[in-house]
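Re: the pair you flagged

First of the two:
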Amino acid sequence: MGIFHEMRESEGEIVIVYTYFPLFYIAFAAALAGVFLLHPSYAPHITAAFALFIALFIVDFWRPLRETRQAVKSGRCKELSGSKFSFKNPLRVVIDKEAGEK
């Protein structure tokens, strides 16, 4: 279980739900607005905070995104639903374990 996603494994499948993927876009928009609208002396602090957020985001999403990419390429992805822009209908990936073992 990561900070920004949920990953559940059962005997036959892996379910990955990217629950907080839209948070990246909101943080990016807030950082951009902060840099351009606030006093210029705040820009380095906002940029550094956003860079730390991006680093945390990348570290947390590295494994599930890699696994999703490999599953889609190999044809093990059973279901890909939702939207990466929605909190109500988050991106959900269901990966079949048995198809990869054949």
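Second of the two:
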Amino acid sequence: MLLRLLAKDLYKSQKKVESLNQQLLETMNNKEQEKIKEELRQANAELCQLQKVMEGRKEQSRASLHKRKSLY
């Protein structure tokens, strides 16, 4: 269940980064570009953090599967 919620958050975060990148490409106003760049920096940091958490969860799942197999 937790993995599914993490996956949803990861997907939303990826979409936000894509959207901000698109906005940055379309914006001509320098002040607006700076604002978008800051939002993009924060969104990328959040995405990176979620990816690390997701990888950690996958590793935990793999490790628990290997432990169960070795018991039999």
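The chain has two helices and no strands.

-B.
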